Amino acid sequence: MKIVILNKPYDVLSQFRKDEAHLTMSDFVDDPTLRLAGRLDMDSEGLIFLTDHGGLNQYITNPANKKFKTYVVQVEGDVTEEALEQLRKGVELKDGLTLPAKAIKVEQPEWLWDRDPPVRFRASVPTSWIEISICEGRNRQVRRMTAAVGFPTLRLIRTKIGAIDLVQLGLQPGETKEIEPLLYPDFQNVPAEEPYRSRSYVKKPGGTGGKPIHKKVNKDGTPKKKPSGTKRIWQMDESEKPRRKTNGTTRPNTKTPRGRRAR
After folding, report:
1. Nearest 5 degrees, angle CA 76-CA 82-CA 86?
2. CB–CB of 84/50 below 8 Å?
């Protein structure tokens, strides 16, 4: 399993496909074997995993695995203890109640890099910083949570996923670093990757997609044959055809063949 850490800058899309208006992952990483594991919104910054393991993203984002993702968030207004307590208990969003978060008020980080463009805020309104950790992966979840408790997000930086700490790694925006998964307990229980299978069946010999086809066999290993002599419905007499069960209120069919009424 290969894992590369990227410090995603602001205004960069979490995709490898080229985009005319914005930078993407392909502008910072040139490795066709890598895929994203844990997206960040275009207007968010910080830690992103790039990996060749297809199941890592689901493992990280599944709340059952308790892989907390930590963010440093600049919010509009002087955040109150009541608002932090709401975040800790869970916030009711349009898609349901969030799981309890870890949330504390912090000072502006000393390691903080300048953002280009800088954050726009109102001079008459103070700002404050929160460190918040969640183990879910809903769309724009942290931004929606802070807004729901009355403190809209101005800037959001993901600093940790599990024990992987962007600040300890010392990565500046746009920089990458490959890590050794065996040195981190977060990756010890990642399930083995299974080969990709498409949704549709592939019945040709040597096909790689689709669900595996299990043929029925006899005790001696020979393939079972379908019983012969079974009549098709068009071969049956009227008395042999299956009857549809009704509750007795179905009207009799008065139509002639091809759906035309008798004249």
Report:
1. 90
2. no
pTM of the entire predicted model: 0.70
* Torsion on CA atoms 214, 215, 220, 225, rounded to nearest 10: 160
Mark whether 237 is an active-site residue.
no
CATH of the domain at 6: 3.30.70.580
Residue 104: which of 118, 83, 90, 76 has the closest Cα? 83
Tokens found for residue 216: 């029925």
Distance of CA 227 to the CA centre of its chain: 47
Number of compact structural domains in the chain: 2
Say yes or no: 22 and 150 in one domain.
no
- Work out the end-to-end distance of the chain between its first and last CA atoms, rounded to an integer number of angstroms: 75
Q: What is the pLDDT of residue 14?
A: 92
Q: Is residue 31 a contact partner of residue 4, using CB atoms and an 8 Å limit? A: yes
Q: Which residues pair with 19 in a beta bridge?
A: none
Instruction: Quote the tokens at residue 218.
Output: 């006899």
Q: At 84, which CATH number? A: 3.30.70.1560
Query: What is the mean predicted confidence (pLDDT) over 216-234?
Result: 64
Do 155 and 73 share a structural domain?
Answer: yes
Q: Determine which one of 11, 27, 31, 41 is catalytic.
A: 41
